[in-house]
Structures are given as structure tokens and as C-alpha cells.
Design goal:
This is TIR domain-containing protein. The protein has about 120 residues and is α/β, with parallel strands linked by helices. The chain has a single domain, classed as Rossmann fold (3-Layer(aba) Sandwich), CATH 3.40.50.450. The protein is built from four helices and five strands; from the N terminus they run βαβαβαββα. It has helices spanning about 15-25, 45-60, 75-85, 115-124; strands spanning about 5-10, 35-40, 60-65, 90-95, 110-115. It has a five-stranded parallel β-sheet with strand order 2-1-3-4-5, sandwiched between helices. Helix 3 links the parallel strand 3 and strand 4. The protein is globular. The N and C termini lie close together (about 10 Å).
Length: about 120
């Protein structure tokens, strides 16, 4: 069975490191997923960014929101969640850090603690 194609949404201003960790896990030999694309990587005109994000979300099988302290109010994440909903993509959230209290992103699915067994189960 082919790996699931995942679009990773994250707060670009605060949580780039969690995106790198997810990409690293996607490259493990027993990974059931590949990262199709991630949130905005560089400054881009609004229209261009939204178009590229929507196309990447369309190519994905599932959208994973990596949650940090401010993700629930990150404008780009909120737009990507809406795009995922508009495209009918399954979506879930993963807390990107070990400690702390985190607020779920509105309308972005269930919130999970991050562990390799959990990711493998969710993306199998």
C-alpha cells in the first residue's frame, strides 16, 4: 500500500522546528506517510501563496496541523484549515511539543499528543 500524502500546516513564525521533525519522521524506513508540502516557506504574495497551498492540499490525502503555543490564531494555518475543509480532506492536529498547554485550532479535527506510534496509527 502506498504511503499517505500529508500536507503539514504549522505556524511559520513560531514552529518551523516541528515541521522539520515531521519531515524527518516521514523519511524513516517504517514511515506510512510522505510529506507532500508544508505551510508557506517564504514571503509570497497573498494570492500566489493561497493558490499554491490549495493545490498542495488537493494533492494530499490528509492535512496534519502541528500545534504550538500560537497556532490557534496563526492566519496562514486558519486559511489552510479552511482550504482543507473546502476540499473535503481529513484533518487532525498534533501537539508539537512535550510540555505546555496548547489550544486546538478551530475546526481542525481532533488534537493528539505527538508520538511515533500515534502518527503511524493515524497515517497508516
Amino acid at each position: 500500500m502506498a504511503n499517505k500524502r500529508v500536507f503539514v500546516s504549522f505556524d511559520f513564525d513560531h514552529d518551523k522546528v516541528v515541521k522539520e521533525f515531521v519531515i524527518g519522521q516521514s523519511k524513516l524506513p517504517d514511515s506510512p506517510f510522505t510529506v507532500v508540502d508544508t505551510s508557506l516557506k517564504e514571503a509570497a504574495p497573498e494570492a500566489t501563496w493561497q493558490e499554491k497551498a490549495r493545490l498542495a492540499i488537493k494533492r494530499s490525502d490528509v492535512v496534519m496541523v502541528m500545534v504550538g503555543r500560537y497556532t490557534h490564531r496563526a492566519p496562514g494555518v486558519l486559511k489552510e484549515v479552511k482550504m482543507a475543509r473546502d476540499e473535503g480532506k481529513p484533518i487532525f492536529q498534533v501537539i508539537g511539543y512535550k510540555d505546555g498547554d496548547y489550544t486546538a485550532v478551530p475546526n481542525a479535527g481532533r488534537l493528539y499528543r505527538w508520538s511515533w506510534p500515534t502518527l503511524k496509527k493515524l497515517l497508516a
